[in-house]
Write a structure and sequence with these properties.
The chain has 457 residues and is an alpha+beta fold. The protein folds into three domains: 84 residues, Uridine Diphospho-n-acetylenolpyruvylglucosamine Reductase, domain 2; 127 residues, Uridine Diphospho-n-acetylenolpyruvylglucosamine Reductase, domain 3, CATH 3.30.465.10; 202 residues, 3-Layer(aba) Sandwich (Vanillyl-alcohol Oxidase, Chain A, domain 3), CATH 3.40.462. It is built from 13 helices and 19 strands. Strand 5 and strand 6 form a beta hairpin. The longest helix has 14 residues.
Length: 457
Amino acid sequence: MDKRFPLEDQIEMLASALRGRVVTPGSPDYDGLRIVALANFDKTPAAVIRVATAADIAAVINFARATDLELAVRSGGHSVGGFSGSNGGLVIDLRDLTGIDIDHAGRTGWFGTGLNAGAVTAALEPHGLILPLGDSGTVGLGGITLGGGIGYLVRKHGLTIDSLLAAEIVTADGDILVADAEHHSDLFWALRGGGGNFGVVTRFRFRLHALPSFVGGPLILPATPEVLAGFVAAAEAAPDELTAIVNLMPAPPLPFIPAHVHGQLVLMGMMAYAGDADAAARALAPFRALAPAIADLVGPAPLSSLYIPEDPNLRPAVTTRALYMDTVGLADARTLIEHLGRTDAPMFIGQVRVLGGAAARVPVGDTAYAHRRSRILVGLLAMYGGPTEPHERWASAGIAALRQHDAGAYVNFVSNEGPERLRAAYPGPTWDRLRQVKAKYDPENLFRLNQNIPPAA
């Protein structure tokens, strides 16, 4: 671009060359497109570009490189680090890349990165197929996948990346590549856990899995240290078909929860069994024996029913911290529950995800997600309005109190916690290997608005 022209004119010239839309300040829909899911971040980009094709993305990348503008990439807009937006730069908005092409005979499919987990699941369920994603239907496919993807079927089918067969990506020099096990295999390795450091993925090709029957739903129990420790032990001993995610939280005012419990801390176990009802009942028996249930809605259901409906108008500020743990025994459970009592956030969650199963059987070096031997992922989350600092201190203090030998980090749950915490997401030789791939595909670090891995010197 000719820098003699004002930036606004250059952006207008860019817009004329694209199939997608370029939205700038002053446009009626600018505010609606620039805002992200978390109210912590209120950024004002020079333009939001709703790209329509890979060629559009290449043109925007070349424009950003020529103008030295910061470049953000948005899929679902849920980045806890605020990387889905930019102040004064360009936002590549992928939400119009929603193509789905399923090969039913081969049980594979291409999916655009503008899709979210709910849309993918809804497209697959009528055909008896699933893709292991996260635990929220509104989170974008791009972020889930590139960070790893830990969700309701992690013990049965592994992480989202464990089903990834290929990715179409636009690199920093504007090239459109397909990375898989045979082509650009170094890039394919890095994309499975290394985040958005290497380019803009336009679509993914996944292996799909049959799910002829499924049993799931919430099992709500008293939130005592004894119940929590017993729940985690039962989840570790359960068959791979069962994945359980614990949410310690104030009981919401829902009709199936007794009114006198509303607002009290409860253990909401989100249960997901990939199998028939009889086998599920046997697997669930140890959990149901822990204490009389406050509510038990676990039963035959579609997988999509586990995606709790979210109010699209609700846009809270969110603080989150997480760490891997080797065990959650009685003392750890007591520490976690006591710490939840120290926040004044109107909504908070202490989450425990028991891992293992299929995710742990992938060799550590096969993907950039390297925490295959980590047994449990624990997170703290606060949702609120107003200043973030008190909630940041609360979450950080809780994680410090829970810290054990395994101090690793899951990159999708890392916020703005500094380079040391990011480094913990990529242990051992993984960090150095990622830096080498970064140096090959993005030596100038154009894609730096992310959990950034600097290129090797």
